[in-house]
């Protein structure tokens, strides 16, 4: 069952395929239902009759979402924040990971071990002092400020990941490059990075998802309507005056779909990147 | 030149010469290390250490949410917390939640990783579907599940009633008996892909020859799993269990958005209690105290786990 | 080596650039934080803001919309950062918490500039303490009992005036709603989640039987026989409601009636707007009564009222501009447009407004449902009570008690844990006594 090539019996193969099918259905059904519901008019949504497909499919929910609400604005804001946070966190984490695996310096062990401590405090209460901090550097209520908050929250895990996959790249490669006259930074860029690229992609994916999905920091750190991100905006639909289920399902589809597409594209590198680190475990 | 894997990276030919008299410190290897690590450390120090320290400071004070003054209480908040039934109930709820979710996430993660390790057509697409719960924003996932589990309009209840399995709608989130189970199940669905990804990555570097020789020696599928796969996965599993344990114990939105701690507090975990104290009851100091307790519990737990892990790895 | 310095320089430069990007322009910004998030209200507010900004160059008004649960967090964060918003929406049951902590300032000046005699005294009272008024009332809200005229006609029922009648009607409609083993229509709906809807609902039912949470001195009366009778009544009513009521908040109460799944519900007049959007056919057959009377000696026909208003934060900058904006918002044609964004749900407690033919000219108000509602609304405003003044005198501790969901928890113990109403209220009563 564990990855041995080809020699599985027919019965074994059927079991595996059956298990995969069941898993796909169990895990993917909410995605399917969200999509189906997004095309249903209110009369069908509240009909209390079980149907796997809408009887009178409609684009009404999507129209309302894109025209009546600020959804496109939220989408743009989320993208901007996530991109800034991802670039920032990956650059910093890559540098830090390289430094932690290539140099000896005082305090190094302490840095490597303490990164995990930041995750032990519930983020919900961190939002207030974070707000005060951002205010003091003039970044409160701004998309770059929110990106900075996301960056700092993702950084410990990103550094940990970076350390792992840099450890898998032999130091001798650096040394060889430097013998040829390259500086440390040059060695990093020209020799080590290309080998660690899948791992960097893995890091980018985790940070992007973390930023894209964040609600806790976004709701406190950004107050202006035009700068709200997707999770905050969608939560707004659910809260106020009535439950606009069709609208929210349509919003859910539009939020999830691009992420899934992007994820499908990068997942090959994602897993490859993690397996590079897996040599050391 | 042989390939060497070292953890510290002190190469045979270190391009930065060792410290010599007259050489300024900023050209030494230590400085290089700090230059690379510096920006991250600064960012973390400012954006995580400071807020953490502030919250710890708050926990020693009595501070109404909207007030400007805070009066020093020493450890009073903690004393009151540790003596309250509310705190311990939240602690045990949280412990149950964390242990159950991590255990089930591990099970689901390893099983799906094993399944996805096979080659078959459409594997990329299947992987995308199976991994998608992890990339959905929690708020969207909550909305979808609430919609599916709705007592009157949710598809799950409509099916169960139509199929005659249930007499009436099942109260997934409204019943004190079921609410915690429902929340646990959905949190497993949400986060198991994290484990799947890591385990899958690890599986892909197990050399096939190892399996081949085992097969030649007559090991069956279960035997290969038990004696080859599992030991290879051990270090990965130990690490993901730690990080998932920390993250699940601290989980807020994927519990609160479903139940807000109810009904009757059965799903009230420590992070929810912290939120309730700070923003629901306007006691910011007390909320910070709960948060500090969470921190101490997790720090202690991690230290103990680290020792366990070192013993495991040495074994 | 030079590359390393180059990199450091870049890093520093980036940080500086980011910081400068956040620098604010030099203009006066009045921030308004509100929970009124209905899209039509948002649009009306934005238009009014645009008009104000045109008439007042150099002043910008920024409206921030947040949900109930988020607004606390945002307010606290802003206060902690030393840059609070100027104006915030307040409700009668927590305004004094903000006042006592020095967050807001008295707004007698704004009320006087709008014209104090124009405000109904009953609307100013929930905001007034020790001679100072802390908020500008902008809308009085109500909770009433909605029923279906068509179903009532079909089964020969009459609008309920007493508990017994309501219970019987709910039972008849519950049994009639069972079609082929499936409950097509539920007899009624009852909020039983841990939220303000449940608090208001249970509170209203307590009043309908002559019970209150405390007496005028703040001593608990929550364990009175009339209160016990109320919880027992609610437990009976709950059997005709959908099974998931322990999670129901106001959204579910609206939804379940508007989609035709329940024959009764409790809510304010916003529900007509939802019917208009979701299910216009029901608009013709929707009607309401106040909460029917219980059997207790001091029972009365009543409604739970709440007062929404605007408050100005004490430490905010641009106090004069904020006061100016509030006056602008709350007078003239602009006030009418705000109220019209959700007609009948927004009810201005102002003498000049409610007789103004322009105000009464909203399309929804002109429908038969709207006209029916006007009568019920008038009754509700006349006979209803506010939370903190249930006994006639303001009892401050009722506010925090309600926010800690004392009544919702009492109801949930009865419904979910089978605790007897007497024991559940004994526990709730201890909570009331312990509160300061």
SS-based class of chain B: mainly alpha
**Number of strand segments of chain A:** 0
Radius of gyration based on Cα positions of chain A: 23 Å
Coarse shape of chain A: globular
Average pLDDT of chain B, rounded to a whole number, is 84
Order of helices and strands of chain A: HHHHHHHHHHHH
Question: What structural class do helix, strand and pairing data of chain A support?
Answer: mainly alpha
Strand content of chain B: under 5%
Distance between the termini of chain A: 22 Å
Strand content of chain A: under 5%
Q: Low-confidence parts of chain B, pLDDT < 50 over ≥5 residues?
A: 1-20
Radius of gyration of chain B: 25 Å
Largest sheet of chain B: 2 strands, antiparallel
Helical residue percent band of chain A: over 70%
Low-confidence stretches of chain A: 1-6
What's the number of helices of chain A? 12
First and last CA, distance of chain B: 32 Å
Can you put this structure into words, describing what you see?
The complex is a heterotrimer of chains A (281), B (315) and C (436). Chain A is mostly helical and 281 residues long. Chain A has helices at 10-38, 42-45, 60-68, 71-102, 108-114, 123-136, 143-167, 171-179, 184-213, 216-221, 230-239, 245-278. The radius of gyration of chain A is 23 Å and the shape is globular. Chain A starts with 9 loop residues before the first helix and ends with a helix. Mean pLDDT of chain A is 82; it is low at 1-6. With 315 residues, chain B is mainly α. Chain B has twelve helices and two strands, in the order H-E-E-H-H-H-H-H-H-H-H-H-H-H. In chain B, strands 1-2 form a two-stranded antiparallel sheet. In chain B, helix 3 (85-116) crosses helix 11 (270-280). Chain B starts with 28 loop residues before the first helix and ends with a helix. The N and C termini of chain C lie far apart (67 Å). Chain C has helices at 2-21, 39-55, 68-80, 95-100, 108-114, 121-124, 149-154, 163-176, 196-208, 225-238, 250-258, 270-278, 280-283, 319-329, 332-341, 351-354, 363-366, 368-383, 398-403, 406-417, 421-434, and strands at 28-34, 59-65, 87-91, 104-105, 128-129, 132-133, 136-148, 178-179, 182-183, 264-267, 286-289, 304-313, 385-386. In chain C, helix 2 (39-55) runs antiparallel to helix 15 (332-341), helix 5 (108-114) packs parallel to helix 14 and helix 10 packs across helix 20 (406-417). By secondary structure, chain C is of the alpha+beta class. Chain C is globular and about 70 Å long. The chains are: A mainly alpha (281), B mainly alpha (315), C alpha+beta (436). Chains in contact: A-B, A-C, B-C. Chains A and B meet through helix 1, helix 4, helix 6, helix 7 and helix 8 of A and helix 1, helix 3, helix 4, helix 5 and helix 6 of B.
């Amino acid at each position: 069952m564990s990855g041995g090539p080809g020699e599985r019996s027919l019965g074994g193969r059927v079991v595996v395929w059956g298990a995969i099918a069941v898993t796909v259905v169990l895990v993917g059904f909410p995605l399917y239902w969200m999509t189906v519901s997004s095309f249903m008019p209110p009369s069908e949504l509240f009909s209390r009759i079980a149907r796997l497909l809408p009887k009178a499919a409609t684009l009404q929910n999507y129209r309302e979402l894109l025209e009546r609400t600020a959804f496109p604005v939220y989408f743009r804001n989320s993208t901007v924040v996530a991109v800034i946070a991802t670039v920032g966190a990956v650059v910093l984490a890559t540098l830090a990971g390289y430094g932690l695996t290539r140099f000896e310096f005082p305090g190094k062990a302490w840095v490597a071990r303490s990164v995990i401590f930041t995750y032990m405090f519930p983020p919900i209460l961190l939002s207030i002092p974070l707000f005060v901090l951002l205010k003091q550097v003039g970044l409160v209520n701004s998309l770059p400020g929110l990106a900075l908050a996301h960056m700092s929250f993702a950084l410990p895990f990103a550094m940990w990941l970076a350390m792992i996959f840099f450890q898998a790249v032999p130091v001798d490669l650096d040394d060889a490059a430097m013998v040829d006259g390259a500086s440390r930074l040059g060695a990093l860029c020209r020799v080590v990075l290309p080998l660690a690229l899948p791992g960097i992609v893995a890091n980018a994916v985790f940070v992007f998802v973390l930023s894209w999905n964040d609600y806790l920091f976004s709701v406190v750190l950004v107050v202006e309507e035009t700068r709200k991100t997707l999770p905050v905006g969608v939560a707004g639909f659910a809260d106020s005056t009535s439950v606009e289920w069709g609208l929210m399902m349509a919003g859910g589809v539009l939020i999830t779909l691009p992420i899934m597409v992007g994820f499908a594209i990068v997942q090959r590198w994602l897993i490859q990147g993690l397996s590079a680190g897996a040599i050391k475990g | 030149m042989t390939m060497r894997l070292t953890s510290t990276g002190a190469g045979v030919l270190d391009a930065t010469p060792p410290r010599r008299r007259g050489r300024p410190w900023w050209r030494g290897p230590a400085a290089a290390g700090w230059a690379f690590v510096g920006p991250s450390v600064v960012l973390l120090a400012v954006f995580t250490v400071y807020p953490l320290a502030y919250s710890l400071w708050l926990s020693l004070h009595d501070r109404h949410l909207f007030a400007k003054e805070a009066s020093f209480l020493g450890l009073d908040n903690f004393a009151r917390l540790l003596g309250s039934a509310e705190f311990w109930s939240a602690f045990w709820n949280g412990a149950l939640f964390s242990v159950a979710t991590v255990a089930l996430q591990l099970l689901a993660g390893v099983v799906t990783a094993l399944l996805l390790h096979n080659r078959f057509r459409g594997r990329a697409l299947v992987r995308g579907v199976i991994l998608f719960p992890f990339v959905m924003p929690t708020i969207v996932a909550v909305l979808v599940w609430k919609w599916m589990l709705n007592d009157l309009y949710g598809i799950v209840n409509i099916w169960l009633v139509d199929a005659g399995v249930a007499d009436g709608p099942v109260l997934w989130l409204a019943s004190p008996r079921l609410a915690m189970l429902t929340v646990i199940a959905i949190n497993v669905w949400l986060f198991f892909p994290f484990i799947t990804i890591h385990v899958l990555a690890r599986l892909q570097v197990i050399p096939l020859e190892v399996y081949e020789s085992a097969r030649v020696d007559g090991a069956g599928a279960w035997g290969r799993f038990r004696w080859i796969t599992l030991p290879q996965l051990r270090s990965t599993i130990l690490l993901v269990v730690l990080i998932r344990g920390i993250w699940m114990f601290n989980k807020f939105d994927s519990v609160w958005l479903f139940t807000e701690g109810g009904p009757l507090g059965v799903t009230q975990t420590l992070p929810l209690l912290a939120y309730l104290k700070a923003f629901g009851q306007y006691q910011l100091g007390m909320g910070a105290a709960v948060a500090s307790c969470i921190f101490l519990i997790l720090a202690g737990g991690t230290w103990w786990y680290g020792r366990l892990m070192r013993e495991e790895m040495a074994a | 080596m030079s590359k390393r310095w180059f990199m450091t320089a870049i890093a520093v430069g980036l940080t500086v650039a980011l910081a400068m990007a956040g620098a604010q322009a030099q203009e006066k910004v009045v921030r308004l934080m509100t929970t009124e998030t209905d899209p039509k209200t948002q649009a009306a507010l934005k238009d009014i803001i645009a008009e104000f900004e045109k008439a007042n160059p150099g002043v910008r008004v920024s409206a921030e919309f947040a949900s109930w649960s988020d607004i606390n967090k945002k307010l606290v964060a802003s206060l902690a950062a030393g840059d609070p918003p100027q104006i915030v929406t307040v409700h009668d049951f927590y305004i004094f918490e903000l006042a006592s902590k020095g967050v807001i300032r008295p707004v007698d000046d704004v009320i006087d500039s709008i014209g104090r005699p124009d405000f109904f005294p009953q609307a100013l009272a929930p905001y007034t303490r020790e001679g100072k008024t802390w908020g500008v009332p902008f809308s009085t809200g109500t909770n009433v009992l909605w029923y279906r005229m068509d179903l009532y006609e079909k089964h020969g029922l009459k609008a309920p005036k007493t508990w017994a009648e309501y219970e019987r009607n709910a039972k008849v409609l519950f049994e009639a709603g069972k079609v082929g083993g499936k409950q097509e229509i539920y007899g009624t709906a009852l909020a039983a989640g841990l939220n303000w809807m449940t608090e208001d609902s249970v509170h209203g039912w307590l009043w309908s039987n002559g019970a209150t949470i405390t007496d005028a001195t703040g001593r608990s009366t929550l364990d009175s026989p009339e209160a016990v009778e109320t919880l027992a009544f609610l437990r009976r009513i709950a059997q005709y409601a959908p099974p998931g009521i322990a999670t129901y908040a106001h959204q579910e109460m609206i939804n379940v009636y508007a989609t035709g799944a329940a024959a009764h519900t409790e809510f304010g007049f916003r529900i007509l707007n939802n019917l208009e959007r979701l299910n216009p056919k029901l608009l013709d057959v929707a009607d309401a009564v106040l909460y029917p009377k219980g059997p207790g000696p001091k029972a009365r026909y009543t409604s739970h009222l709440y007062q929404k208003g605007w408050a100005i934060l004490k430490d905010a900058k641009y106090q004069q501009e904020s006061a100016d904006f509030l006056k602008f918002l709350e007078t003239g044609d602009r006030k009418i447009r705000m109220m019209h964004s959700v007609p009948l749900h927004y009810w201005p407690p102002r003498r000049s407004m409610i007789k103004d033919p322009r105000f009464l000219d909203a399309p929804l108000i002109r429908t038969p449902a709207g006209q029916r509602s006007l009568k019920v609304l008038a009754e509700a405003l006349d006979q209803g009570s506010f939370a903190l003044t249930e006994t006639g005198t303001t009892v401050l501790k009722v506010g925090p008690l309600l926010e800690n969901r004392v009544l919702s928890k009492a109801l949930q113990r009865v419904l979910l844990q089978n605790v007897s109403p007497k024991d559940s209220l004994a526990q709730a009563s201890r909570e009331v006594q312990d509160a300061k």
